[in-house]
Amino acid sequence: APVQPLVRNRKQLESLLQQVPTFANPQSRWEQYATPGEVAASWLYDAKMRWNCFTAEQSVLDLGCGPGALMTGCLALGSGYVCGVDIDSDSLDLCRSNLMELFSPGNDDDDNDVSANWDLLQADVTRLSAGLVHQRQFDVVVTNPPFGTYSDAKLSHKSNSNRRNKKAGQSTSSKGIDIAFLEAGIAASCGLVFSLHKTATMPFVMHRARQACARKLMSSDDVASAMVEGRDYSVSQVANLRYNLNRSYNHHLKESKDIEVSILEVAFLR
Amino acid sequence: IFKISNMKLILHNMLTSAMIKGVKKGYPLLLRATKVELQPVEFDAGFVVHMLPRLDWSGVTAAVQCLNQLDLLQDPLPELPPTVPDDYANNEDFLRKAHIALMQLDVIEGCLVCPETGREFPIAKGIPNMLINDNEAA
């Protein structure tokens, strides 16, 4: 029987997200790795319990959506509209087919016709803020960004295959890309931002998050003033999880490895 | 049979070409659709009311005008007022029309066009491609 898209509890969400088909050939040039189903489920369900987010009137943005595990979760929890952004055509094709499999208006195969509202956008997240007409358009932004562990030097060492694969306009530098994703999320959100980072980098990431929030102005009727932590926004480390990077990358470790990741939560309080 | 689900006008409403060097505003992007479809999306007043203050209404009306001119649908999209009415939160007739425009119309194939440079951004299988070359970047 087809999987029920709408979920009522954490277990159902986990079960659903573990079934989202993932990358067959993760592309190392984008540091692609899909969010494991159980990580995504835990992450989103806890957020929902904490904030009652992902409701029918809310819009959600997923930066670096990949095959769509997070998008699937946000839709399954009841979000009104979810937009996923990714740079890679193959990811977007896979994501689109995954979402259409589960959420399609007028899907006649299913007795329980669940429609959901979503869009996909092919774009460079690091250039996204410049390309959106307004900031703060989304209630929630979720992102599992590339970790940004590869510098230009390492990527160009891969030289031939990278030059063949590199398309015009796609940046080869991954340094600081997780911060770039976080900043894009902070700009796009009027409510919440959740992002996933290596635990070891969290003090630095949180510092950069606070800087980005402080730069984001509160606009009231006639005055734009800087945001104040505690009053206008909060930055917290809300979960620590273990994450398994598989051995798909040919320049990566020879064995499967667990890494420790944490979830950063930014909340705009007013 | 799966119905296609994108690109909705709510996304078109947010996109600009301002990441391109020399573009002042890049908004709204012209909607040069070649294939569109109206979907039976359930009306949700609460969603529209919540989202409306964050949208650029002139972008919505421009998109609907573009599409009605292209004459791709059996029936044209409902006409929208030039500005959002003050009583929009309680105006179901208006909310329904806005919902149809924003959430029920899928632009499946075509392109988005920068109003200042004419640069085209293709839409294929309902997914707009806003990638630019490094030498175009601001």
Short overview:
The complex is a heterodimer of chains A (270) and B (138). By secondary structure, chain A is of the alpha/beta class.
Written overview of the protein:
The complex is a heterodimer of chains A (270) and B (138). Chain A has a single domain, classed as Rossmann fold (3-Layer(aba) Sandwich). Helices cover 33% and strands 23% of the residues of chain A. In chain A, strand 1, helix 3 and strand 2 form a beta-alpha-beta unit. About 11% of the residues of chain A have low confidence. With 138 residues, chain B is an alpha+beta fold. The interface between A and B is large, with 44 and 46 residues. Chain B: One of its GO terms (molecular function) is protein heterodimerization activity. Chain B: It comes from Macrostomum lignano. Chain B: Belongs to the TRM112 family.
Relevant terms:
heterodimer; A: 270 residues; alpha/beta; Rossmann fold; two-stranded antiparallel sheet; 9 helices; 33% helix; globular; B: 138 residues; alpha+beta; N-terminal domain of TfIIb; 4 helices; 4 strands; 28% helix; 18% strand; Trm112 (chain B); protein heterodimerization activity (chain B); Trm112-like (chain B)
Q: What would you call the structural class of chain A?
A: alpha/beta
Shape of chain A: globular
- The radius of gyration over CA of chain A amounts to 18 Å
CATH homologous group name of chain A: Vaccinia Virus protein VP39
Give the helix/strand class of chain B. Answer: alpha+beta
What count of domains describes the coordinates of chain B? 1
Strand order in space, largest sheet of chain A: 3-2-1-4-5-9-8
Listing every helix as H and every strand as E from the N terminus to the C terminus, the arrangement of chain B reads HEHHHEEE
Would you tell me which CATH topology of chain A applies?
A: Rossmann fold
Strand count, sense and barrel status of the largest sheet of chain B are:
4 strands, antiparallel
Helix content of chain A: 25-40%
CATH class of chain A: Alpha Beta
